[in-house]
Design brief:
By secondary structure, this protein is an alpha+beta fold. The protein contains 12 helices and 25 strands. It has helices at about 35-50, 115-125, 230-240, 260-280, 310-315, 350-365, 375-395, 440-445, 450-460, 480-495, 500-515, 520-535; strands at about 25-30, 50-60, 65-75, 80-90, 95-100, 135-140, 145-155, 165-170, 175-180, 185, 190-195, 200-205, 210, 220-225, 250, 255, 290-295, 320-325, 325-330, 345, 405-410, 415, 420, 465, 470-475.
């Protein structure tokens, strides 16, 4: 997630912005009746023909006896970007089918350009293709139909504004069809002092004459690396050119930790893991206790005037989820500097920032919501929802430092934070679908429009009146927030597909509420009223 600073412009094919969908797009939200029977039968037939292939099967984390099957769409053996159906099953029946299926594809799937040609093309632009991320041939849905494309995820030079760019090159002539940022910005036990001078426990490893930030109490490999202001080494790691080892871990000689950025990154990653497990039964980002790696001090505060504005916006005024369980937390600003009238502390010093970034990891391993347009706004919103949930789980409700509230990043960016789920308009963000951002900036509004579903989540819990529609919502109440947290978590991770839009999110959360708590339950009513209030049908 890019929390703050300049948003890189999209490089789109001639002819305008990437639209919307081809005319053959089928948005599937089948929860009962004839629609469910039809799509269940159709999915089975497409699976038998090889046009749908089972990508992932997961047991439901909240309802025993349910499983969710993710069926990726293929055309003549080539994956269709964003095409996926999610089938929910019990032991005896199919209970729902959600997702996006693309019809009417007619393409020659033999590329003129090779994968090596595509790699050389991005290299010629000064981009670095990580060794573990090679070009993939895909069918790309476009407004005018479909195109055969090479999909690449390449990193920019930091002086140009470090970014992970998702690039689609025409497999025949190498033209750029679509490009957007894929960077989701945003056994010994010691004690540590956090960024805000609070004390917390540190789960670390004893060895080498000191203590290392390698969590030995939780199941995943949860480690925090101190990059010591070495931007070059940070970039080499992100580009797959070097590996980080034990010598890169943060170290303390007596297990009384005083580097607040290290303390909070390490402890808050553990807090988020605990929330995922205790609230939802989820074992980390991938539900298999996969790695969680945090990088702090990618630059030094004292060096800020030696870097370009692009480096400052990415590694000082930002935190981001890079992918593969890797978080990078920016350095913030020296205490005598402000940006936009606000002060920026170490980004790892806010629990909701850390939880937000890890939320992108959960999305990557579940619905894989494409980081562009409405699906990207839902991706961002889910991270905000997870961040708020983690705060209220671990911190007392209230206002001020180290309190759980409905602001985002308020412990790092002062005064005020960067977004409000209770009152999005206070930050100039839309709180109703009718006033959503429709421009090309910010990957077609992934951060800006996230506030719409954020506000729906808030209203479903706390209740209230939407400023634009005037509709009032009777929420379930803060004492029952876990009901709505489970509804949204299950919908976003188990039911949504990569190219889902706001309407699909409404349908999926309502389905989730019925599955968990029954038809016409207070949770379902609150969720329906909330979506109505923010104008999503």
């Amino acid at each position: 997630m890019k929390w703050y600073g300049t948003v890189l412009a999209l490089a789109l094919a001639a002819g305008g912005a990437q639209a919307a969908d081809p005319t053959g797009t089928r948005r599937v939200a089948a929860g009962d009746g004839a629609a469910l029977s039809d799509w269940d039968f159709r999915a089975g037939r497409l699976e038998a023909a090889g046009d749908l292939r089972l990508r992932l099967v997961r047991e439901d984390e909240l309802l025993p006896g349910r499983v969710h099957e993710r069926l990726a769409q293929f055309y003549r053996g080539i994956p269709v970007w964003g095409g996926e159906l999610v089938r929910q099953r019990s032991a005896t029946a199919t209970l729902s089918v959600f997702g996006t299926f693309y019809e009417g594809i007619e393409l020659d799937v033999t590329p003129t350009l090779t994968a090596a040609d595509a790699a050389r093309s991005v290299a010629a632009r000064g981009l670095t293709l990580p060794l573990d991320k090679q070009p993939e041939l895909v069918v790309l849905p476009r407004e005018a139909g479909y195109a055969l494309a090479w999909r690449l995820r390449a990193n920019t030079d930091p002086d140009a504004g470090f970014d992970a760019r998702m690039i689609f090159l025409d497999a025949r002539d190498g033209a750029v069809l679509l490009e957007y940022s894929d960077l989701k910005h945003q056994s010994a036990v010691g004690t540590g002092t956090g960024v805000l001078a609070d004390s917390k426990k540190m789960s670390v490893l004893s060895g080498g004459g000191g203590f290392l930030t390698d969590d030995q109490l939780r199941p995943p490999r949860l480690r925090t690396f101190d990059m010591k202001g070495n931007l070059t080494r940070t970039l080499q790691f992100l580009n797959g050119q070097v590996a980080l080892g034990q010598s890169d871990l943060a170290v303390d000689p007596d297990n009384v930790w005083s580097d607040g950025a290290v303390v909070d990154a390490h402890a808050y990653a553990g807090y988020t893991y605990d929330y995922l497990y205790k609230r939802f039964g989820r074992r980390g980002l991938d539900d298999q206790n996969g790695r969680i790696l945090s990088l702090v001090h990618p630059v030094n505060r004292a060096d800020i005037f030696g870097y370009s504005d692009s480096v400052v916006s990415t590694f000082y005024l930002n935190a981001f989820y890079y992918g593969d369980g890797i978080m990078v937390y920016g350095e913030g600003l020296p205490s005598n500097l402000t940006a936009g009238g606000q002060r920026f502390n170490y980004w790892s010093g806010a629990l909701d920032v850390v939880s937000h970034e890890l939320g992108h990891g959960v999305t990557d391993f579940t619905s894989a919501l494409i980081y562009y347009g409405e699906s990207g706004a839902l991706n961002e919103s889910f991270s905000d929802i997870l961040a708020a949930g983690t705060e209220f789980f671990h911190q007392e409700a209230g206002s001020g430092p180290l309190k759980a509230d409905w602001l985002l990043a308020e412990d790092t960016v002062t005064p005020g934070g960067i977004r409000s789920m209770q009152n999005p308009a206070a930050f100039g963000d839309p709180d109703h679908y009718s006033i959503r951002f429709t421009g090309a900036e910010d990957n077609n509004g992934v951060h800006i429009n996230s506030s719409i579903s954020n506000h729906a989540f808030y209203l479903a819990i706390e209740g209230g009146r939407n400023r634009v529609s005037g509709l009032s919502v009777t929420g379930v109440g803060s004492a029952n927030r876990d009901l709505i947290e489970r509804v949204f978590f299950r919908a976003y991770t188990a039911l949504l597909a990569p190219s889902s839009d706001f309407s699909a999110a409404r349908a999926a959360t309502l389905q989730s509420a019925r599955d968990l708590y029954g038809a016409n339950s207070n949770a379902e009513r609150a969720v329906r009223e909330a979506w109505n209030a923010v104008g999503v049908q």
